[in-house]
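Researcher: Hi, I'm a grad student and pretty new to this. My advisor asked me to get structures for two proteins we've been looking at. I'm not sure of the right format, so I'll just paste the first sequence and hope you can take it from there.
Model: That works fine. Here's the first sequence with its structure tokens right after it:
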Amino acid sequence: MTIKADFQLDAKGLSCPMPIVKTKKAMAQLVDGQILEVSATDKGSKADIAAWAASVGHQYIGTTEVDAVLKHYIRKCAQDVDNEKVFESTIDLEQIAGRSGLILDVREEAEFAFGHIEGAKSIPLGELEARLSELDKEREIYVICRTGSRSDLAAQQLVANGFTKVFNVLPGMTSWTGELIKTI
């Protein structure tokens, strides 16, 4: 089945945050009501694009997958992309060492397996809503991803679900110089 889209964006071969960066730019060119089809190979893009669309008020329609290519469909809604919410409570990457809170890694399972901070809990962004019960609302939560984009969206999601001690860790795992734990 072919799904009609007004514009197509090729983000195949790109990893976070590039599919989102390119999607933002493409959406800015659309008029209200038009549909963008984003082709991507990054498995994490499904959760990333859905969460981003929700954070800026666009309609995430859905995703199809054929031969390892994900096709995401987003409908532009009246809100302007410039109204994107950014999570305000941040903490510098170096400041999380030695703190008693939980490091919540929202990268995909494969990213986590190839290297994460010791003691971090893995809940990929796309699974966060379904796994909120695994988290303690009384504990500080330091949300981290590769660059700070997915963790920003995850932090917003946690606060929307009643968590109050949430911090987005910036810049993200790309800048981590400490020991990496591998589980592969």
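Researcher: Oh nice, that was easy. Here's the second one.
Model: And its structure:
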Amino acid sequence: MIAIRYVAGYAATGTAVLALTLAGCGGGGGGSGGGKSGTSPSQSSGGTSQSGTTGSATSTLTTAKVAKLGTVVTDDKGYVLYRFDADSANPTKVTCYDTCAAVWPAATANGGVTTKGIDKSLVSTVKRADGSTQVTLAGWPLYRYAKDDEPKEAYGQGVDGTWFAVTPDGAKITTPASTSPAPATTSTGGGGGY
């Protein structure tokens, strides 16, 4: 009787881990498969998605020197900000929602955004489908990468060939991503971007 209870517990745990892993590694987690050939379930055009993920609030955009990339835009905590090729700048369009937004949280603003080393006229915001306000630079929506654990880390650079750190003028940095692997995570799921 006790052995059956343990087996049932392990089976339930294994099922939960598998479901989280599949959800995190699926089509849009990190933009995979969606940037060039249609819209995956985690990407929605404009404001038509029914759900989104609350992003990373920032009140200041600043710049920092990052090894192998040069000068990049960071949030007020020093985390590198990225843009996504499936989005657009003219007109501004957000496509990263749901599973994608769990891996790539939007850089959101609860009020005005100040700048340091960035032309203020290039900074604006766009409303997301979930009602939050996402910061834009030269029209491009900005994001953080969930696997960047420390300021000035840029593990998101070049992920899936669609995510790039952004320069102070809103251009994407096309320098190849670092050859060092992203840090191992202790949680299950999350995936995306690999």
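Researcher: Is there anything I should tell my advisor about the second?
Model: You could mention this: The longest helix spans residues 2-25.
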